[in-house]
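[User]
Protein folding is very new to me. Any chance you could explain this protein sequence and its structure tokens? I have pasted everything here:
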Amino acid sequence: MRVAARLSSTYRNRSLIAGGVAVVAFFSLMFGSIGLSRYSVGAGTFKMLAAVVLMFCVVEGARKTADCLSEEKREGTIGLLFLTDLKGYDIVLGKLVGTSLTSVYGLISILPVLALPLLLGGVLAVEFWRAALALLNLLFLSLCLGILISSISRNEQKAMAMTVLIMAVLCILPWLPVLFAIRPINPAYAFNASFEAYYRADRAGYWESLGAGQMLSWSLLIGACLILPRAWQERAVDAPGWVRWRQRLKQWPRYAKMEARRRREMLALNPIVWLSARQSGVRFGLYSIAAVAAIAAAGFCLSGGFGSQYYAGACWALNLMVKIWLGVQAARCMAEGRRNNTLEMLLVTPLKTNQIISGSVDGLVRLFLPPVLVILGIEAIGYALGMVLRANAIGLSSGDEISAAVILGAGYLVLFALDATALLWTGLWFGLTSKKDSQAIAKTVLLVLGLPYLSMICWCPGMFLFFLSSALWTAWARGRMQSQFRQKATQTESFQRQDTPLLVVPPFNRQQPPLPPIING
């Protein structure tokens, strides 16, 4: 904690977080006051800023604590800690405090900005403090969840994805009608119940949700303290069933010949294409999403085309998963090549810089394009059939429904293609320039996908940025890749641990010869 408090990044990140939320509040107040009363602007701005802070609290566990212990496992340094007098709870609590200090500082710096709508009216002071307490409770839960998953995991991406997924499910559960009766035991319900209208209807639910969040958080923290001393060593584990079936499939002669022919074709075209497109697990996961899309389309058609908003929301969620996966894979592809010095070795081969860049892009396109076309085709066919069934049921002309669906679908496909292109290029660039995979993934997803939706608060300027941001990010990242690829690929950075001294010299003793320096850590 002492080291983290002295880092310049702690002060810088705290200022950046507060400044970013202040910019959001400024544009919301400036554009939201058009045609609305002062009290409506205050209440609307408060709810919007609280939602932004909620997203910050949800992802902080993945950003800060989901990889703090798993990184030590991968580097093989956590065993050295257990050789000392430290216990499991010492390491877990020390890591939690050291890594989450910036997150707590960031949330505290946001609270004055969140209190600005109090000056406009429409928001009570007790409502602000209830929301602040609920957000702090969610931040603590997210950090404890991340450190528990980090104690049982070794892979950075899996730990981060699992943390975000569980927190997202917890935030969605209070809105499900099936679980409406037991919503107070959900830790995320306190955020919704903190607003005055909901608090008056269910005072006890707010406090029960806070208590449930504290109980769950401390349970996760205690679980991490108990699991870490027993899970830090590498153990031979049996592969899952689906992995064993994939291995058997690869041993099938026909499949092996097909893969060998495909590999020869890609190597003859460009070796980088094979390096980027060889992940068969990604292809299997994308086709699994296609199967989920087919089930959703079948359910929409069986319902007679009614509930189109739910089907559209399900398709949007599936497509968002595909786009995030593309950004993650692009960032990991380049970050892994830089980490294991593959890019540096490729630069001494006859391959040119443009061939390396185009090979990476072509490989990702070959990996994602076929399953993405299948997913979009299934969604489009399901929506068209559902609209025809709905039009026949209510006695309308199906031609008008199909025409409107074609126009909307064409516009959505253009936006999807622009977002996918921007994610591909920015993922490659941030993967090349970031120190860690998690940083590259966070920058790619938040800047390309999150920032345009956040800009919608600016009304007309926000709409303009929403539709052009993908093209701007593509042009920026592509230009950087083509002009600075060789410089960034060969740039070596020395990282040293800042929490332990690099050199400890023992005191000089006249009766004994001086000992050599002791390297610590």
Confidence is low (pLDDT under 50) at residues 494-513.
